[in-house]
Specification:
calcium ion binding, five-stranded mixed sheet, Immunoglobulin-like, four-stranded antiparallel sheet, 21% strand, single chain, alpha+beta, transmembrane helix
Length: 363
């Protein structure tokens, strides 16, 4: 609505959707400065009715479902059709019915009372060849401007007995069977997909559990070879678990630990070099045997199985092994007189490693 009081539509109006429009108009008085004066306002209801124009074409009054016997004779009336119009129809409205083309099986007779008869033009019909016929019908009115529409009538050919009773359930049964078959197929496909998904999830979980609890056979064999050849202990692999030994000790499988003596170990005492200059290989063997016995009878300490690797250290080097286990040769074949030439700082070493017996050392 404008300030002058004219009402204009803001969008396209359709009488078939809403014939009346009720609005309220507010009128205000303005002062000299064209400002609204409070308390000087009036509200007026306005009722707008839309007038009709002929903008809708006529159509079938009902969803027709005509049926005819396959042995019907020519001229037999199949059904009577009528039309309606969404526009306001005056009392003198006229609907005209016609076919889009001359059909070889049916004809249309206009009754001139806004109805028409569909009749058989040539009979009988061959139901095995064609069970349904589509008949396009043109319907027009006498409005201004005139409107025309095309509506299709589906005619079903049925079997009839001697009394004239029709049997048209063949197509319906076929349709019902088809729907049931499709539903069964869909259910089977859905069931197969669900079982496949469950199987995939179960296999993934089972594979994950096996990867945690088990190891590859080749990996275990490779670790055994490493233990046998290199004598690797618990530090050679991340799979070593000390809890296995502890659990065995708690179950009493291992022998109880031998009581420790309060007396100091004889290997902690001062070891003197024998007068004949030998290195005491037998005492070293006794020490290894004692350590081995202590390790076998003590479940708290780690295995003592790494001593044998000393015998292989430096086997491929020029200097050979640096281990003291193989140093059983005598020191008499080594000349330490060159220590006397190094000055007073090495005098004590020269006296210790001299060939002749040394007297009391002066510190």
């Amino acid at each position: 609505i404008s300030t002058s009081g004219c009402i204009f539509p803001t969008k396209r109006l359709d009488r078939e959707e809403n014939t009346w429009h009720n609005i309220t108009v507010a009128a205000n008085e303005l002062d000299q400065n064209k400002k609204i004066i409070p308390r000087l306002e009036t509200h007026v209801p306005v009722y707008i009715k839309l007038t009709d124009i002929n903008d809708n074409a006529p159509e079938f009054a009902f969803p027709y479902d005509p049926r005819v016997c396959e042995n019907a004779a020519a001229g037999q009336v199949i059904t009577r059709i009528s039309a309606v119009d969404k526009d306001e129809t005056p009392p003198d409205v006229k609907f005209k019915f016609s076919l889009t083309s001359e059909d070889s099986n049916f004809t249309l007779i206009d009754n001139r009372d806004n109805t028409a008869n569909v009749t058989v033009k040539f009979g009988p019909f061959n139901r095995e060849l064609l069970k349904t016929h589509l008949l396009p019908i043109i319907i027009s009115d006498n409005g201004e401007p005139p409107q025309t529409s095309t509506n299709t009538l589906t005619i079903q050919i049925c079997q009839c007995d001697k009394e004239g009773a029709m049997h048209c359930e063949g197509q319906a049964k076929l349709m019902r069977v088809g729907i049931q078959v499709l539903m069964t197929i869909f259910v089977c496909i859905f069931t197969i997909l669900a079982l496949t998904m469950l199987l995939i999830v179960w296999r993934r979980r089972h594979k994950k559990d096996l990867s945690v609890l088990k190891k590859n056979v080749e990996e275990i064999h490779e670790q055994l070879v490493a233990y046998d050849e290199e004598g690797g202990g618990e530090m050679d692999t991340t799979s070593y678990d000390v809890s296995v030994l502890n659990s065995a000790r708690q179950r009493g499988i291992l022998c109880p630990r031998m009581p420790l003596e309060d007396s100091p170990c004889k290997y902690s005492r001062e070891q003197k070099i024998p007068e004949n200059g030998l290195s005491g290989i037998g005492e070293m063997g006794i020490m290894i045997e004692m350590k081995k016995d202590e390790a076998d009878n003590d479940g708290d300490i780690l295995p003592y199985d790494t001593l044998h690797i000393f015998g292989y250290e430096g086997a491929e080097s020029i200097a050979e092994s640096l281990s003291s286990l193989g140093s059983g040769s005598s020191d008499l074949d080594i000349d330490y007189d060159f220590l006397n030439d190094w000055g007073p700082r090495f005098k004590m070493l020269a006296e210790l490693y001299g060939l002749g017996p040394s007297g009391d050392l002066v510190y």
